[in-house]
Write a structure and sequence with these properties.
Pfam family, one: Ifi-6-16
Membrane topology: Multi-pass membrane protein
Structural class: mainly alpha
Number of helices: 5
Signal peptide: 1-22
Strand order of the largest sheet: 1-2
Helix content: over 70%
Order of helices and strands: HHEEHHH
Transmembrane segments: 32-57
Oligomer: single chain
Number of domains: 1
Keywords: Membrane, Signal, Transmembrane, Transmembrane helix
Length: 123
């Protein structure tokens, strides 16, 4: 039920947006592509940083980050979250956040660098 309400709200946003801020189909595609790539790449990025199922790899970026976080008392949540992602992957909530942030960043990047020509508007 909540998903259908979100879809209706999203479509309403697309249909009622004025022409100055209206989204194009390519904006939506960039957002979906950016979010998808980020969700798929996040566990690989955590593993590349040294966070894995067996723990933090020795002499990796993860050990340096963990040392700084525990020494300063700041960033411990980031280290523990990266360790969890490296060990088990993203949860549904984490996937939603990562997809939303990356999708928004991809759409903003597209609008900043590639919006020179007129395109068909959604709705």
């Amino acid at each position: 039920m909540a998903t259908s309400r979100m879809i209706v709200m999203f479509c309403g946003l697309l249909l009622t947006a004025n022409t100055a801020t209206a989204w194009t189909w390519s904006d939506v595609a960039w957002g979906i592509a950016g979010g998808t790539v980020a969700v798929v790449a996040a566990p690989y990025a955590a593993a590349a940083a040294g966070f894995g199922a067996a723990g933090v790899a020795a002499s990796s970026f993860g050990t340096k980050l963990m040392s700084v976080a525990w020494t300063t008392g700041m960033g411990t949540y980031v280290v523990s979250t990266l360790q969890a992602v490296g060990a088990a992957g993203l949860t549904m909530a984490q996937s939603a956040v990562v997809a939303g942030v990356a999708g928004s960043a991809a759409t903003a990047t597209k609008k900043a660098f590639f919006d020179g020509e007129q395109e068909d508007k959604c709705g």
